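Quick one: structure tokens for this chain, please?
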Amino acid sequence: METNYYTIKVYQQRDGSREIRTLLLDHLIHSEVDPEDSSYLHYKHEHIQMEFLWAARRGIRSRALVVGGGRLHFPRYAMEMLPETRMDVVEIDPV
């Protein structure tokens, strides 16, 4: 699909027993998710971001700003794991 911002492609592949969906924006992999397992985080930086949110919890409600929503997998995962977190997501492409 063509938008004002990207050429968007989504394809599926198998990784062992997982069915992985990959989001490409202008031929670059933007995210990989397992639609059957919301706890699957593909990228190491997503695990590190979660560690920051866990650490920030010490007696206060965590806040996070995600710039670029993509498939919104990380914000959904973070909100599922830490529902008290305040999460804002900024995405300019409505598609």
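The two ends are 9 Å apart (CA to CA).
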